[in-house]
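Async update (no meeting this week)

Hi team, since we skipped the sync, here's where things stand on the single-chain job. The sequence we agreed to prioritize is pasted below, unchanged from the tracker. I ran it this morning and attached the output directly underneath so nobody has to dig for it. Comments welcome in thread, and please keep replies under the output.
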Amino acid sequence: MRTKIWSTLKYIIVIFSILVFSNLVFSNTVALADSKPVIKLNHIFITKKDSNVNIQQIIQIDVPKGYKEQREGKVIKAFIPLPAGFNNVTINGLSKEEFVELKDGLGIVTIPESPLKLSINYLLPFNENSSINLSYPYACEMLAVLTIPGELAVKSNSLTPQGVLDITGKSFDVYATGNLNENTPISFELVKGQGNLQKAPEVYNEEPVNLKFHSPEHIQRWKNSPLGNTNPHLWLAFLIFVIGGIVVALIMLYRNKQDTLDEEEFLEKVTKLKEEEREILAKIEILDDKYDKGEVLEEEYNELLNHYKDQLKKVKIELKKLSE
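Output:
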């Protein structure tokens, strides 16, 4: 039994080693290719300013170490798209040497820290209404558009109205969405006039919300970990496989121990019955000897002999049961 248990454990170890090696070798290229920045927070504050709207975009983005991409012939660390027609761009959080202005957004050349936190200000032309279309090349955990209540209304199938929220003593009409995959289109229309005046529920929070198990943040944490070049789902399968193997081994050890206890109990019963059998046969032999010497009458002899035979019969029946 112990040999079978050891063989099972060796089989589990061999299979586990093969799976680990396969995971490390074949997942490396795919994992590196999938490792992209993740936008943790993207708040777009919009206010009316003459014939324009002033936009302050607060963005927080995680950029994997060593990540690079190329846009318009320039190598950059991350790309932040801006709406068509943007102008007068200023950025807090980066020096002029750390970003480049591209035709459809900003390219981040240097990442001073990660997550990178930026405040981007720019203007957009605006008359009575204006359509804004955005598509971020990275996954986004939280995106919100905020306007002054009564100044601008937001119409969108991409954003959900959250009501009016107070931020640092100011009220904003909030429209939000979250857990967006990369390249998810976001469209909304700005209309001059009254928007939502209903207070936002207390559960709304400007921090990332509604994070699921496979949220971009969890994915990014895995990619930045020492095992980031491997498949996390395969590691989960490994864990289940190993735990299952340990459980099987423990069950086999328990059964082996139980079998040992059953065998000891069996031998003990057989030994006891054999001892009883020898004692009865010895009594019969003594009885026969006394009868031959005339020390026991025939009637008493027959009575004792039948009694011993009955006892012997019972012992033999018990031995037969144990042998079946």
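Quick observations from my side:
The two ends are 22 Å apart (CA to CA).
The first helix runs from residue 2 to 26.
Reply here if anything looks off.
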